[in-house]
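Subject: complex prediction, re-run

Hi both,

The earlier run crashed halfway through, so I resubmitted it with identical inputs.
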Amino acid sequence: MSEPELATPFRARAGEALHDGFLQQALTIATTKFIDLRREAFGEFPEGEALRDRARAIKEATLQRLDHYLEQLVDNVERLGGTVHFATTPEDARRIILDIAERTGARMAVKSKSMATEEIHLNDALEAAGVTPVETDLGEYIIQLAHERPSHIIAPAIHKTKGQVADLFSRELGRPDVPADPEVLTAIARAELREKFLQADMGITGANFAVADTGTVVLVTNEGNGRMVTTLPRVHVAVMGVEKVVPSMTDLAVFLAILAKSATGQKLSVYTTLVRGPRKPTELEGPDEFHLVLLDNGRIDQIGGTLREALSCLRCGACLNVCPVYRSIGGHAYGYTYPGPIGILLTAMLNGPGSVKDLAHASSLCGACADACPVRIDIPRMLIELRKEVDEKRIAPWTERMVFRAFAWLLGRPALFRLTAPIARLMQRPFARGGRITRLPLFFGEWTRTRDLPPVAARTFSERWDDLAREGRR
Amino acid sequence: MARTRAALMITCLGDMLYPEVGVAIVRLLRKLDVDVEFPKGQTCCGLPLFNSGYHTEARAVAGRLVELFAEAPYVVVPSGSCAWMVKHELPGLLKDTPLAERAQALAAKTYELSQFLVRVLGKRRFTSRVHGRVTYHDSCHLLRGLHESASPREILRNLEGVELVELPGHDECCGFGGSFSVRLPEVSSAILEKKLVNVEATGAACVVACDAGCLMQMSGGLTRRSSPVRAMHLAELIEGAS
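This time it finished cleanly. Structure:
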């Protein structure tokens, strides 16, 4: 999202999303479907629960020795004839990729869906350098045509209805009267993209995993575009966060068994593409050059940080689908590359705690995310940790910090605390009607705008206790 | 048989806004031969402070709690979220303090009301104050924090004259979330709206929950839309042992 958009406070962005009828319709349909499919997939897979624990244990063990596994990965990719680059910042990553494009004379790059390249805002940089990026995942293709950003980690165009996509195709592709029929829409995209695959000089992908002891980069896709992107162009560049490395193929199997089930409810995705370096002399297809860009961008700092657990994330999107906040406002309102509960943690990781001053509170802490997470990341706990950091670093407004400290002070003084009931009864008198409060001034109005409030009781439980105690002795 | 002793942790919302729930609990427990104590000086479990990140302040509140409830063999809490705070967060907050062991002990003897009735007292059958169809909302902290979904349902299913119907999306949040409800009231209300549509679709006369926060949110929404459906605490439905 651009700076001016972020200048709108989060609450206002969320409010706009709540009033977007198309968005609401699209979100409800898609997230409900994802929830049901995931539930079914795990319902039919009793081993799933144990595998989730196993997957988490593998991620933890890998983080313990991340340097070792990364070295192993680098050695193996280089042994296979590939080149590995290390990017500390998004700028580094963009420069590395633009250098490759320039050296190889690339004019067009086809892309398979990748959140890492979204994170480094690669498309804008490619365009500025005269390289045309073409998104080939259907959802990404749609949002590229619409000049938007993904609003979901695995379903980037989840915020659009099929009718909106049909209108977009009519307008942007100059094809009048496109029907709102997913099959027709897919066929159009397919025809448009086929040419691009053949023209492109460069293929850019992310990586769902990279296997250290074989040097294999693994892509999990459903449309087959990943396979085209990695085989047709002369050059393949894969961009991945350093935490995506897994030790062995045996470990990979554990993740593959739970990833698609968590993401789309599929047993496995339609395509699992394993890439090992550039084309070998004996092979018929594949690129002349293979580059792997390892991206840090704040991740390595968090190995010993409060957000360590978030480094286990598989980017399946399950936590978004079940989150009541995400389901209400969609991904764009969050304002950064990664939306939803895990997105808040990743935003803090990549942009610092100041960026999540408001987002850290964009959760009712209901815990549905932690339950759905295939590797059981305790997202609510880390949101609380972020809130703590926001307070301790004095990023939270001083008024808020004062209110909470005053509340805490009062809780330590029961005699004073008991006085709040008679005071509240006095103050609520003008507002209480028929046993409820329908309107309150100031800050309290945030509640009563949409909900009634029960008045403080005529006699609190504490005030009734002496009578109750007597009643008990009778 | 020796009578059971239990202390009631009324909670801040329970004390000020829903005293009748506390009264119902005291009378019910007495009918079940439980001697109810009410340690004086109770304020709040500190969950609002903890969840907003004010952990130093929450630690002080936790310390008070541990001392207040030191004597009781059992502690009964009418709200799943406060029970979760005591059971899951107090030990962590007081871990490196002289109160660490006592925090563990408090966590171990604390129960949410439905858990106490079913799992400690072994009581499942009660007479009812209400008749007709009811539905049950799983409060997030009780369901996902304390992994309790069976006890309240068991009680409701066995209540004479009451028909329990499952709520579509029963495990989805009501949108309360403590300070979330006033920090992002529009989002909180949108989540609530979905919950209430589901509640009304069941045709139930009341939606039951075991958490004062959820009750405040749901009843606030129900009366605002002039719905005939009431939000009630489990204890308000129970008359006595059957």
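Chain A touches chain B through 66 residues (CB under 8 Å).

- K.
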